[in-house]
Amino acid sequence: MSKGRLISFEGLDGAGKTTQMELLGQWLESQHIPYVRTREPGGTPLGVEIRQLLLNRPELEITPLAEAFL
Q1: pTM of the model as a whole
Q2: CA dist., res. 57 & res. 53, Å (int)
Q3: 68 dihedral zone (left: phi>0; alpha: psi -120 to 50; beta)
Q4: Whether 60 contacts 53, CB under 8 Å
Q5: What is the sign of the dihedral through the CA atoms of 17, 10, 14 and 46?
Q6: pLDDT for 1
Q7: 3-state secondary structure 3-63
Q8: CB of 9 closer than 8 Å to CB of 20
Q9: Exposed/middle/buried for 24, CB within 10 Å: 0-12, 13-18, 19+?
Q10: Is residue 70 within 8 Å of 55, Cβ to Cβ?
Q11: Would you write out the chain's pLDDT as a tens digit for each of its 70 residues?
């Protein structure tokens, strides 16, 4: 089995992370390279709920330790 790669897109809201992920996905598909796309937190029903809480409830405070565990 060949080794994979982990590519992470990080940046502020509106910086173009989703656009870049979509462009990379299109290129990988054009090259017939299999890939897996995930979102953190996300990718599972619980992860989606946690993501929505973090994005839509700014009044909820999260400690740095709790954020690291996510």
Answers
A1: 0.58
A2: 5
A3: alpha
A4: yes
A5: positive
A6: 65
A7: CCCCCCCCCCCCCCHHHHHHHHHHHHHHCCCCCCCCCCCCCCHHHHHHHHHHHHCCCCCCC
A8: yes
A9: middle
A10: no
A11: 678 899 999 998 789 998 999 999 999 999 999 999 887 766 788 888 888 888 888 888 888 888 788 7
Q: Which residue has the tokens 């409830």?
A: 57
Q: Are 11 and 17 in contact (CB under 8 A)?
A: yes
Q: Smallest Cα–Cα separation from 17: which of 48, 46, 40, 49?
A: 40
Q: What is the pLDDT of residue 49?
A: 85
